Predict the structure.
Amino acid sequence: NFQISNQHFSEKFGKMSISSNEQEHRNGRSAVGNHVDMSLYPPFIKQLDAKLPDYTREGDIEYPFEEITGVGDENRIRGNWSNKSDYLLAVIGFTAGVGSFWKFPFLVFKHGGAAFLIPYLVMLCLAALPMFFMEMVLGQFSSSSAISVWKVVPLFKGIGFAQVTISGFFAVFFNIISAWTLFYLINSFSFSIPWSNCANSWSGENCTLGTRIQCREMNGTLLVNGSCIVEHAASNETTVIPLHDLNSIPSLRYFHTDVLMLSKGVDDFGTLNWYLGLCVLVCWIAVFLCLFQGVKSSGKVVYISVIFPFIILTVLLTRLLTLDGSISAVLYFLSPKWEVLSDLHVWGEAAVQAFYSVSCCSGGLFTIASYSKFHNNVYKDICLVLLVDVFVSLIGCLLTFSAIGFTCYEFAIALDKFQIRDGFHLVFVFLAEALAGVPVAPLYAGLFFIMILLVVHATQMFVVETIVSSLCDEYPERLRRNRRHVLTTVCALFICLSIPFCLSSGLYWMELLTQFVLTWPLVVIAFLECMAINWIYGVDNMLDNAKWIVGHWPPCYIFWKVLFKFICPLVYLSILCFLWLDWNSIEYESYQFPYWSILAAWGIASIPLILIPIIGIWQFCIAKGTITQKWWRVLYPDDAWGPALAIHRAEKFPLQIPEARRLLLPPEVEIAASQRDLQDDIPMNSGVLTAGRSSEFAQTTDARSIRSTVAGGGDRGDVKSIGATINTMIPKFERETAI
């Protein structure tokens, strides 16, 4: 309602400059020696050929405009990324996570090879891209994290609290993965890695190194069916070593017995693995140190935690592709099976994986984008990050399939008979076993676990940053200056929450987190977020915000509108139905999870979602006014919604800036017209003037208009009183602004 175009501003300002000589004569001042501080006016005023009046602070001015062209942060209160590369690496590190190595290769292996890429890429555009676009745009536009960004629709502020709560679960989950990886990494520094042989106390009697390896060591003959015949010359006896038993390989025994000290069930808590507990502590200390200076320190850590894994991945892939059986396995598993495209279950799996692959709806994208500069080209960033995410997933497939080929060669298994599992089993059992058979195994195993550790650490780092920044943005007066205390408290709390997962039953609870807490609640949040932004705030407003940032709308404007308003809600509902209908009883190996543990997992998963209606009701209750006014306040954006800096708000809405309002309302404006417009428009637009206040404003304006008429417009004090009155009645932003 207060928007004014540059053309309209130019016309009004032109009239003002034409009468500037008469005004100077009436006010008794000369233009000589008039030094105007251009930083006090909207940026586009500098491009106009007009004589600006000098400026006097009148007491009703909130802030001058910020200086954003010099060296340093654009937002000096909240901070920004040091440069563009810090920001891009942070987004890539947050999105291209460990799922590219333990989930996507399994889906390609299971669902038709390269043919699976077609439903995956389609669902990436329909399910992941819209939410990724929305969170990146709104985070950068408002410079707000997961909670404060919901000033856009205050009724749904609970979504922000739900995202922070889920980020807490993610923080614990990724920390345990980091601790397991660190445990493996430390034990890789030896001449013979522990899971490469059966000469260990935890190996057991049925430990199997692989049929081919055993045959070679015993000078036996390997048969086509995978069995091995060993002839003993001394006793004239022939021993047949049966087919391989992948449940007895040393890497699986090592993972269960030595690393996890795995118990018999979810309710058998067992003992605490103190070595694993120390790894948890070390990982949390690393997160604390990396976030100690906020995005200034984490923006430098990403150069190691994001770039170095790509280098290691290239080395490992090059080495594995040179091993026996690797090339044939890659060609076999990537060969497309087009019949899977007619299977709706495959499309459902592709939609779920595409949605999770960009790490949306956990608040992290809001947070990372909020530290970017306002006019950063977010369109290019979105395309680049999604391309990198797909590229990393494909490289993860090549790494896994080459390892499968080498393992099948060592165990004498036919490729069509080989079966793998996703999740923890793929990374910590299968890939660890494959690398144990590579020459110079400690080197390549160490590189592999360094890569996994850095990838998980990058994701965990920004998950914790999301929690800390969201709390500091929501309660800036109390927490922003004490950000390090908030970070210390959050890390200490999560250390206490992570230690129970180091018990013998920790793996079972991690499985419950994976299957319930970190899955379908994100889809529910995505649906609610999509409806709130695209239907209540308005998809046109959101796309206008994107245009304000970049300077132009995204290409195919109508496509984006249809995608956001109609296709996205249907896709998210379909994904949610698929997850619920595809649910089966949970099991790990041969262990069936008891019914009470599944109910507990459902209850824990519901905690973030319960916050949404609770906080929505609270927002409605604390809103002022009648029932209608309450709905108006909770469904329309808050007064503080918009760009964080005044200089950016002035680009589109100069009337919201006190300095610009004084320029746009010169003394030549008729007082009667101003009074009529304010009485008619302000109560409708702002909803803050009651009848009493309107009459009081009318009386005040009449009195001041009388004084102006008597004075004949010749006293500058009259101009001051008029400007002060108008600036007082027009709604203002109550927002921190850097000076």
